[in-house]
């Protein structure tokens, strides 16, 4: 249906191209396609030059022109922190108050509201059962459960339970019955995990 539609072309108008900035070098009429900084104290301001003149400008450009050696050294030192002010540790009592806040946090005396008990959860974690002075991890907890032991089981109890369960589920002891081989594999891997973790 639309294959016979014809549109009359408008008379072609001359295309006017937007002309960019002209080179700012004295006497040059070429396009200023390259930017060059104007200098210290005029950050964000640029001159426009053609390629040949921007190269010539860059050879003679010196940001520190007119500055003494002390001023250059001070500028370089301030450049390390991005020319932002800095303070020594402990200025205005911030350091001491940070230590007080940390001590209060460790003691459980919070100086702020904790309606969702986010920080109280940390105290609960520290009160978990520990084995020989260390916190039991989830992998160790699962391995102990596979051996039917509590988290506070001693090294001797772990070894004794492993021997008992290994004898009970070994096929040679059960007259060649292989029905409990999977259970035996779980027991052996749990014991090896606890051995690698240093609990037995």
Automatic annotation (TrEMBL):
Coiled coil stretches, renumbered: none
Domain annotation J: ranges: 142-199
Domain of life: Bacteria
Entry-linked Gene3D superfamilies: DnaJ domain
Protein name as annotated: Molecular chaperone DnaJ
Organism, scientific name: Blastochloris tepida
């Amino acid at each position: 249906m639309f294959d016979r539609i014809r549109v009359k072309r408008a008379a072609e108008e001359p295309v006017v191209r937007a002309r960019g900035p002209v080179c700012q070098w004295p006497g040059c009429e070429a396009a200023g396609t390259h930017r060059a900084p104007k200098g210290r104290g005029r950050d964000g301001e640029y001159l426009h030059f053609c390629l040949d003149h921007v190269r010539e400008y860059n050879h003679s450009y010196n940001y520190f022109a007119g500055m003494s050696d002390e001023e250059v050294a001070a500028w370089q030192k301030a450049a390390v922190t991005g020319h932002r002010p800095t303070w020594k540790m402990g200025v205005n009592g911030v350091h001491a108050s940070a230590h007080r806040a940390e001590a209060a946090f460790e003691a459980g005396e919070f100086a702020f509201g904790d309606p969702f008990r986010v920080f109280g959860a940390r105290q609960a974690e520290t009160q978990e059962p520990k084995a020989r002075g260390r916190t039991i991890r989830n992998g160790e907890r699962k391995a102990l459960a596979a051996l039917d032991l509590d988290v506070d089981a001693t090294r001797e109890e772990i070894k004794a339970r492993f021997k008992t369960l290994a004898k009970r589920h070994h096929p040679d002891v059960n007259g060649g019955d292989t029905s409990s081989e999977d259970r035996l594999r779980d027991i052996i891997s749990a014991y090896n995990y606890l051995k690698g973790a240093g609990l037995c």
